[in-house]
Amino acid sequence: MSTRRFRVAGLTALVLGALLTALAPTASAAQLTEVTGFGSNPSNLRMHLYVPDTVVSKPPVLVAVHYCTGTGPAFYSGTEFARMADRYGFIVIYPSATRSGQCFDVSSPQALKHDGGSDPVGIVSMVRYVLQRHNGDANRVYVTGASSGAMMTNVLLGAYPDVFKAGAAFAGVPFGCFATTDGSGWNSTCAQGNLIKTAQQWGDLVRAAYPGYTGPRPRMQIWHGTADDTLRYPNFGEQIKQWTNVNGLSQSPTTTDSPQPSWTRTRYFLGGDARVEAISIQGGTHNTLVSGMAQYVMDYFALSGPQPPPPPPPGSGTCRITYATSAWNTGLTANITIANTGTTAISGWSLGFTLPAGQTITSGWSATYSPASGAVTAKNLAYNPVIAPGSSIGIGLQATHTGDAGKPASFTLNGTTCAVA
């Protein structure tokens, strides 16, 4: 990281601290405590833990990730998340980066792969430690962060969709945007907002981080200031592209409003669920996380209200898949029927499944298919984006195989597990 970037990061820390010092948690018996020996930790991160005096039964877990030059204790004292924990009874993990500059690794090939190594592995070890030692709720694990911590929020949601259910990123960049192969931790093209991809390309980066994963994808709340001169504003739109694609949504918002005079909030719904929520702050700088915003995070994560319903178990969703194959020596065709068994229309659909080893798609109809093997996503075409309640559509593919002409074991439609006929 250059000297200028260190100065910018340091200024970020000073301004953030000055703005929020008055909001530090009030005195109580609960204290921030350092935990050691919490599990696999390849980059020697430090872990600080805040457990309120009173926690709910089977408490949710929030990971709060600091900015460059920061520490876990500084993020604890300079933000409202511990105060929110006192109010709502969840547990907060504050990781600390230990490398020079105290930025988190969001750029190495190891960090951008599920169980690949580096900082994300250490953070996930912290989560698993808390879930085990404090009887935490594995279905309510969340992550938030500012600047470097916002970039890590994107990385954790992308590489560990099996661990994190939602995230809130304050002034970050998309998953994979900061990727480098030369050992550098800084990607100027991304930081300047000059790394532009299609929604499909951004989504493919996330899907490639955990090949074979077909479960539900995390929800994402994105915050960015239009005057951010450190991680520039185009990264806001690129994150929206990525997470709407990952969640199988249109890039056109379902709703638009202004919770505060300088804010524009767009929401992207699947049924009654805002899978992506994006808040643009007119004139906002890189120091986006300020007083009052933590409550919006609590509301988005549903930490301030009733627990959201759990995801449906396999085979009990609002969709049913029929997958009929016809095979020969080295090839096969598959006719796929997607039935909407729910009560609301599915608008903009994305069908996920994993082909058996050795199968490779050579052509398809009524959908786009990517990639050609492994964990495949089939997406609607312009003429068939809507599946009405009680109706179905047919798609299909032709593939080669090396001996296994079997069917995929499971299917998800827009992140929801489908029954298989």
CATH architecture of the largest domain: 3-Layer(aba) Sandwich
Which structural class do you get from the secondary structure elements?
alpha/beta
- So how many helices? 9
Q: Residue-averaged pLDDT, rounded?
A: 89
β-strand percent reads 25-35%
Spatial order of the strands in the main sheet? 1-2-4-3-5-6-7-10-9-8
CATH class of the largest domain: Alpha Beta
Description:
Keywords: Hydrolase, Signal. This protein is α/β, with parallel strands linked by helices and 421 residues long. Strand 16 and strand 17 form a beta hairpin. The relative contact order is 0.11. A 10-stranded mixed sheet has the order 1-2-4-3-5-6-7-10-9-8, with helices on both faces. A 5-stranded mixed sheet has the order 15-19-12-11-22, with no helix packed on it. Strands 16-17-14-20-21 form a 5-stranded antiparallel sheet, with no helix packed on it.
